[in-house]
């Protein structure tokens, strides 16, 4: 690349980063970090463990964001110095190094720019995800488990802690459903574009005639409820059932009725949790999910009322991504048209480009 083109690229990235800094406001974040550090230093912080975890998690996230912005700004300044050397002394090595660094910076700044598009009321929260098998019998149950592994691997790649609340195993293979929380800032805003119906086309490993099978799985994404949301659920609106926790093949995990199923009588919403060792812990976890579902229902009802003239409906039933393993291999997002041929990488959690394309698509829809 010619030196003048490298300089134009560097200037464009400098401008892009400045725009991102104006949105993310690192100065305000530094002030918030100072206040949170005072809170963390308080000797009674861990008297309330849930609040302490929220404070320390938020502090860590803010420090990470500020450090990331500082590092990118420093790297752009260093590139400008390399370009000056290349221009003044005809230093080809500096030009080559600058070109490589500009390519890496372009990727990182593009990814950070997507974060600035997450400005919804709940986008910065952690996410509750539920995956359900839909049409397709045992293939659909197996597909649901493939998607569960895909999202868990994605979280692992980013070092995001995951808390699995409930898994309902299918009789032959796979899962009927699974619910888990992704503990990361902006997890909801990031993962909410994954909501919808996913379709798998492949030669069924469960068909002894080797026929091609199409199966479906649904993904639901909700924001984790916080104390400030005040989702009031009277005891009279709940039916609480307890049962034995179970694993694959119906084997008992323990000998007590520790698993809990909550039914919200006014809406018919049902949630369950069996992964904790005590009934009290499972009920508390199930209540968190139920509150999230009621919060999302209230938001969806309000949005439906405001957009009553639109015909698109809720994205829960909308087919949004196709995974084809036969007769060719391709994963394609049906909203953004983004596609890749490496299906193994996708099922191993390499879905960032799909998520980024989805966030940009969502923003473009909102701007229309």
Automatic annotation (TrEMBL):
Residues 244-260 form the Prokaryotic-type class I peptide chain release factors domain. It is found in: Cytoplasm. Methylated by PrmC. Methylation increases the termination efficiency of RF2. Pfam families: PCRF (PF03462), RF-1 (PF00472). Residues 52-115 form a coiled coil. One of its GO terms (cellular component) is cytoplasm. One of its GO terms (molecular function) is translation release factor activity, codon specific. Gene3D superfamilies: 3.30.160.20, 3.30.70.1660, Release factor. The modification N5-methylglutamine is found at residue 251. The keyword Coiled coil applies. Belongs to the prokaryotic/mitochondrial release factor family. Peptide chain release factor 2 directs the termination of translation in response to the peptide chain termination codons UGA and UAA. PANTHER family: CLASS I PEPTIDE CHAIN RELEASE FACTOR, PEPTIDE CHAIN RELEASE FACTOR 2. This is Peptide chain release factor 2. The gene is prfB.
